[in-house]
Amino acid sequence: xxxxxxxxxxxxxxxxxxxxxxxxxxxxxxxxxxxxxxxxxxxxxxxxxxxxxxxxxxxxxxxxxxxxxxxxxxxxxxxxxxxxxxxxxxxxxxxx
Length: 96
Hints:
Elements: E1 2-7, E2 17-20, E3 26-28, E4 34-36, E5 49-53, E6 58-62, E7 73-75, E8 90-91, E9 94-95
Parallel strand pairs: 1-7
Antiparallel strand pairs: 1-4, 2-3, 2-5, 5-6, 8-9
């Protein structure tokens, strides 16, 4: 199977690791955003989720094993998020 990965502006993303979940199959995208996974030892068709492993991007995609060319995957950059505040109070000689 093969496909292409782009950012939100439709620019090719190079060096993105894509993994077929729960298997040892993976690929890195080239300068054109193209990935290709060749199943040398066959594949369990129940394992049909492609996962993007990246610090800046996150996505999953269901694969269609009936066709070689998968639909393009467009990734949105993850934005950092502040999730709350940390408060330390002192009671006697102990911190709570």
